[in-house]
Amino acid sequence: MESGKFFPAMRGEMLDQTAATDVQNAAPPTDGHIAGSSVSGDVPLLDEQTPTRWEKVRLHSGAKQKFKWEYAAAQPTRRWNYFITRIDWNSSSPLTRAQFEVKPFCTIQNPGQPFWDPNAKLMPQEPTVHICDLPKRTGYHIILAVWEIANSPMAFYQIVDATFEEPKSSSSSH
Predict the structure, then answer these.
(1) Where in this chain does the record put each Chitin-binding type-4 domain (predicted)?
(2) Tally of structural domains, the chain
(3) Which of 48, 105, 130, 157 has the greatest CB tally within 10 Å of its CB?
């Protein structure tokens, strides 16, 4: 879904703190509409949230996790942020900023500037793969992946519903 960049900010017309020449942001999605808000038309179905509403991928708590991005149209990219729900989040309530950790558990930053300089090397590889260390979690949690564009006020938002399991032990018991 495409919406304003700089989540968890709540307003638009902000400058990037690490790249002041980047385009200012549009307002990010509002609380309760984080999954389904889009400039091309909201999808309220995606904002429905219950413990059993969505199929979940199985992930291992504290493990390294591969995230793969494929693009319909690659754009000069400032960063990718990966947020996760708090340990005590309410899986029966709509997604709000209060449901997520304040800081991303993983950030991939493109430092090149200014965005209009081809030597800044801001175009992502196709596909783009990130390896991130997952936080310690058990049970149902949501990962919010955000791809922020340097030459646009927008970002792309992707939700991953996951069931976290303890990592498999490498030792065997007799």
Answers:
(1) 22-161
(2) 1
(3) 157
Q: Which residues contact 75 (CB under 8 A, 6 or more apart)?
A: 123, 149, 150, 151, 152
Secondary structure, 3-state, 28-86:
CCCCCCCCCCCCCCCCHHHHCCCCCCCCCEEEECCCEEEEEECCCCCCCEEEEEEEEEC
Residue 102 covered by a domain = yes
C-alpha–C-alpha distance, residues 78 and 41, integer Å: 24
Q: Domain containing 13 — which CATH number?
A: 2.70.50.50
Residue appearing with tokens 């413990």:
51
- Name the band, by pLDDT with cuts 50, 70 and 90, for residue 169: low
Q: Is residue 171 part of a domain?
A: no
* 79-123: pLDDT as tens digits: 999 999 999 999 999 999 999 999 999 999 999 999 999 999 999
Residue 117 included in any domain:
yes
Tell me how far apart the alpha carbons of residues 163 and 90 are, in angstroms, rounded to a whole number.
Answer: 14
Query: 26 and 7 in contact (C-beta within 8 Å)?
Result: no
* pLDDT for position 170: 54
Q: What is the CA radius of gyration of the chain?
A: 17
Phi, psi (deg, nearest 5) at residue 47: -90, -5
Residue 75 lies in a domain: yes
